[in-house]
Design a protein that fits this description.
13% strand; alpha+beta; 3 helices; single chain; Multidrug-efflux Transporter Regulator, Chain: A, Domain 2
């Protein structure tokens, strides 16, 4: 009897339904800086000054959730037609 192979679960699957047990994608400081287009030093300075984006501290390691980085970028969108 042949077994069928299925693809691994999509990490985003279930999150939209509010499943608290879904694994959230987290990335390191260098990857986060590249993701939002800032330098690592700028992210470090923002953390020191208690400014967004939100981060996760695991021991001495600093990580960022992709959803928090997306929220950070979204909060800084400027619509030129609405600028005063």
């Amino acid at each position: 009897m042949a077994t069928s192979w299925t693809s691994p679960p999509n990490p985003a699957h279930g999150r939209e339904r509010g499943n608290p047990f879904m694994v959230q994608a987290i990335i390191g400081e260098k990857e986060a800086a590249a993701y939002v287009g800032l330098s690592v030093k700028t992210l470090q300075t923002r953390r020191m000054n208690h400014l967004p984006p939100v981060f996760v501290k695991i021991g001495r390691s600093v990580r960022y959730r992709l959803e928090d980085l997306d929220a950070f970028v979204t909060a800084h969108v400027v619509d030129p037609s609405k600028a005063a």
